[in-house]
Specification:
Jelly Rolls; six-stranded antiparallel β-sheet; 9 strands; about 20% helix; about 15% strand
Length: about 300
């Protein structure tokens, strides 16, 4: 397998596909060696941590799920910053985006279909669809995905629907597709896209994928990295990884602790940053001041 390398043209193409269809496929995105190491590590952790099905409607009866992966093994650090995935999320959100969460999803034989949903469903009350992406999900295939072994079901174009799938007003006659891609490929999709884990009707195949999800810097992350990843583990991460976890300020102001970035509080000079210094939160023309240096009061 020859791994693709994103460039400006291919990034623009993937972003345009997501805008039109709600998703894109980055074929041959991940190095075969990394795919193998991720798959082997997850299998080992499932055994060592005695991971069992959580038996909820969302998490499944025959599916093994693991969260908070960055705290469990260094190999997972390669995923959020991968050069064939992250630039697409950055283009859809911005470079101040955050890692919302990482979840290993290992669908076993006998699993039933997951309910159809959008990943940004918790925002629906305050931000009715359709809207700009408030979450970008990348589904990494670590084994081949097929229609029979639980390949993700999705509805192309549903990111533009005005209703969530559970709404009584949601369209019924929709085109449901099965994600069929080889290990090493990645599906990247808009957080409003209707999708669900498929049923696994095979006798002995497990379908292993990892969700790597991103959100804007002003949105609360789905998984909490500040408590989930111990500081001594986070200290081994790259600066870009720490930015994705939220240790930098968003737009030079959001997330500060007494005026300092969370990274400065935890890691000192390495991530030092002061709120309001860069002025990214300011928009429009500079304020006009009077002769005493005071900004004039707003006229009503």
């Amino acid at each position: 397998m020859t791994v693709v390398t994103l460039n400006e043209s291919s990034i623009a193409t993937h972003v345009a596909r997501i805008d039109e269809h709600g998703y894109t496929i980055v074929a041959d995105a991940i190095e075969a060696d990394l795919v193998a190491r991720l798959r082997d590590t997850i299998r080992r952790l499932e055994h060592d941590l005695d991971i069992r099905p959580r038996r909820t409607a969302a998490e499944g009866q025959a599916t093994l799920r693991m969260y908070n992966l960055l705290a469990k093994d260094p190999v997972f650090q390669a995923m959020p910053v991968h050069p064939n995935v992250l630039p697409i999320a950055e283009r859809l959100l911005d470079r101040g985006c955050l890692l919302s969460g990482m979840t290993a999803i290992d669908i076993g034989p006998g699993e039933r279909p997951q309910p159809m949903h959008g990943d940004d469903i918790v925002m629906a009350r305050h931000l009715p669809p359709p809207h700009a992406p408030m979450m970008v999900t990348s589904m990494w295939a670590l084994t081949d995905f097929t229609a029979d072994n639980g390949g993700t079901r999705f509805v192309p174009g549903s990111h533009r629907f005005a209703h969530q799938p559970e709404s009584p007003d949601a369209p019924i006659d929709v085109d449901v597709c099965a994600l069929e891609i080889p290990a090493g490929s990645v599906m990247v999709f808009h957080g409003s896209l209707w999708h669900a884990g498929g049923a696994n009707v095979t006798r002995d195949e497990r379908r292993l994928g990892v969700n790597v999800q991103y959100c804007p810097g002003f949105v609360r992350q789905q998984q909490n990295p500040y408590l989930g990843v111990p500081p001594h583990v986070a200290a081994t991460f790259s600066d870009r990884m720490l930015e994705l976890l939220g240790y930098r300020l968003y737009k030079g102001i959001m997330g500060h602790v007494d005026g300092a970035s969370p990274g400065e509080v935890v890691f000192g000079e390495r991530m030092a940053e002061r709120a309001y210094e860069r002025g990214e939160h300011l928009r429009g023309r500079p304020a006009v001041h009077d002769r005493d240096g005071r900004a004039p009061s707003k006229r009503r």
